[in-house]
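To the wet lab folks,

You asked to see what we're planning to order before we commit. Fair enough. Below is the target structure as tokens, and below that is the sequence we designed to fit it. If anything looks off to you, flag it before the synthesis order goes out.
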């Protein structure tokens, strides 16, 4: 007799369905059970308001979590950067798989790079679309430092919609996450991968979170086979920084924890953080390096430590300025 299928809750977008499908295949392999996708519409999917306006935090997650709590699905897959930093007691992050490329990318007209784009029309600012205050802050800061003339334009919509703005000439470029384009097989449309030295990604960007009920010990154990310990401590440190800054998913905060290796041996973890006003006029950017965390608490401590330093340099005053 075939075992009952596990129900995986997912958002309906093409990207969410693609990444959930990949997780479903992996879960089937480790459990030997079929997995069926249960499509759930979230508030963030139906609202047309800017993410910064509707709060950003949890808008793509709440409906999935409600379905988990009610037992309508057995587990759910989220883009980790969409998850609020507080974890509900009745749910657990059973696995954080190996992270995809965390970088942001540009898809621009005429296959131009960011710096060429801003210099290609000397009398007109290059119009660059993004729904993210974090991206706006860092792109505007970079442009200001390097004498580039750009205008960041707030946009919403799925990948097709966003790239469509470039194809039809409404915008010169859009900024997207490399991981998303990779997962839907459209990475070849990228005209430039933005260095993390130019734009730090969102905390948790490129990583997925597999969540299930905290009382389902068997499923937690099975899903744990997909967990990557290095990815988990890195994103835990990034999200700890975000939480200690008391900033939501839509705040202009970038963070990235990466592992520093000597040869094949991982020696240390470096955590970088940035926060700035969306016009790029004021920024606080710092980093800290320490031993690779071996526990959740050590990773949390690394994030809090950097947040304390950033707050001491005035970070709190920069986060109140949301994109309008």
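Sequence we intend to order:
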């Amino acid at each position: 007799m075939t075992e009952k299928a596990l129900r995986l809750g997912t958002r309906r977008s093409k990207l969410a369905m693609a990444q959930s499908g990949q997780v479903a295949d992996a879960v089937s392999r480790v459990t030997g059970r079929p997995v069926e996708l249960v499509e759930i519409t979230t508030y963030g999917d139906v609202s047309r308001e800017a993410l910064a306006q509707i709060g950003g935090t949890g808008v793509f997650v709440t409906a999935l979590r409600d379905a988990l709590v009610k037992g309508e699905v057995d587990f759910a897959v989220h883009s980790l950067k969409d998850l609020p930093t507080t974890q509900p007691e009745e749910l657990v992050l059973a696995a954080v798989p190996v992270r995809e490329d965390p970088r942001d990318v540009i898809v621009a007209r005429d296959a131009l790079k960011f710096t060429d784009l801003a210099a290609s029309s000397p009398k007109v600012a290059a119009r660059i679309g993004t729904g993210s205050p974090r991206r706006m802050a860092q792109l505007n800061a970079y442009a200001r430092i390097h004498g580039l003339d750009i205008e960041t334009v707030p946009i919403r919509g799925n990948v097709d919609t966003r790239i469509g703005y470039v194809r039809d000439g409404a915008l010169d470029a859009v900024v997207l996450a490399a991981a998303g384009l990779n997962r839907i097989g459209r990475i070849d449309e990228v005209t430039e991968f933005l260095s993390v030295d130019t734009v730090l990604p969102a905390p948790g960007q490129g990583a997925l979170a597999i969540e299930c009920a905290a009382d389902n010990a068997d499923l937690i154990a099975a899903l744990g086979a997909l967990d990557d310990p290095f990815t988990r401590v890195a994103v835990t440190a990034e999200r700890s920084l975000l939480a200690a800054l008391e900033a939501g998913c839509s705040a202009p905060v970038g963070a990235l924890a990466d592992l520093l290796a000597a040869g094949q041996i991982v020696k240390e973890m470096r955590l970088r953080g940035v926060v700035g006003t969306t016009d790029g006029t004021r920024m606080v950017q710092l980093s800290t390096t320490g031993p690779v965390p071996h526990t959740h608490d050590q990773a949390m401590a690394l994030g809090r430590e950097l947040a304390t330093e950033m707050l001491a340099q005035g970070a709190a005053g920069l986060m109140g300025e949301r994109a309008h």
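Structural context that might help your review: The chain is about 35% helix and 25% strand. Confidence is low (pLDDT under 50) at residues 50-57.

Thanks,
Computational group
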